[in-house]
Amino acid sequence: MSTDLLLARLSAAGLSPAAVRTADEGFAAVSGFATLADGREVFAKTLPEPASGLFASEAEGLGALRGAALGTPDVLHVSDELLVLSLLAPRPDTTAFWERLAGDVASLHTSTTHERFGWPHDGWLGAERQDNAWHDDGFAFFAECRVLRWLPEPRVQAKLEPVDQDALERLCAALPQLLPVRPACLTHGDFWMQNILATAAGLPAVIDPAVSYAWADVDLAHLWSTPRPPAAERFFAVYAEITGEQPGWTDRLAYVQLRQHLALMAMFDDDWGSTDAVRDLVRSFRRRP
Question: Which among 75, 166, 248, 288 has most CB atoms closer than 10 A?
Fold first, then answer.
């Protein structure tokens, strides 16, 4: 069914697909690799029920990241029904690759600082809306738009008892005591292993952004908190060298990863341990009887 849908959407867009094979990329979209009639190999994805602006937002994010010198695929076609990108290569998990990526991401974060947190309009994280309302205060932006915005979601309500929901709100109120003041900068917003690939020349490139001006730690926390190959440890060492992070800086990332944990809790019944992680983080913020 997935290849049939992609074939139909590619044909409707006038791209004349000769063949499509499915891909494992992403959780929200139907995706695959297509051979077009002119011989080009492309990556394409669609949704069974098109979401207005979702793919346009992704294309905009890719353009913003490319404008800041981070590698991305070319956008070949974008509509509410279909996104078509130039083909990237599998990621080489070598020390050199991860060191280069660290330099690219450090450059992204340090060259795009912004006076406010947010984005000119809301975006998407997977198939869910991302609240990008402008804020002057990073702590308020993170608490309201990246953490607490997920609390009303039905799955989150079912997974967290009221005592833990209250503790999460108390943790958010304490963020200025838990985290350093950091500037806003352009962030990928969904920066983990599956969204890191390579160009044909073997240089780092990224896909599936959920961009906004936010703390750099949003990107770092996601990569730090999810499985990665041994060579990726060099990413954090080189990033710290370039940006001047002090020893122990990764200790704070667990709090920033709350955003991704809550998102996974909201999107999926099986959330890869995110519910347990949130409960552990908020435990010390529970009110004493």
Answer: 75
Which long-range contacts (C-beta less than 8 Å, at least 24 apart) are formed by 233-238? 233/98, 234/95, 234/98, 234/99, 234/102, 235/98, 235/99, 235/101, 235/102, 235/105, 236/102, 237/102, 238/98, 238/99, 238/102, 238/103, 238/106
Paired tokens of 211:
């961009």
Distances (CA, A) of 67 to 63, 64, 107, 206, 249: 6, 5, 12, 13, 28
Instruction: Say if residues 131 and 214 touch (Cβ distance below 8 Å).
Output: no
pTM for this model (two decimals): 0.96
What's CA 201's distance to the chain center, in Å? 24
Is it true that domain 2-86 has CATH number 3.30.200.20?
yes
Q: CATH homologous superfamily of domain 95-285?
A: Aminoglycoside phosphotransferase (APH), C-terminal lobe (3.90.1200.10)
State which residues of the chain have pLDDT below 70.
1, 25-27
Joined together, the tokens standing for residue 223 give 């990569």
Structure tokens at 24: 């494992």
Please state whether beta strands 41-46 and 17-22 pair in parallel, antiparallel, or not at all (unpaired). unpaired
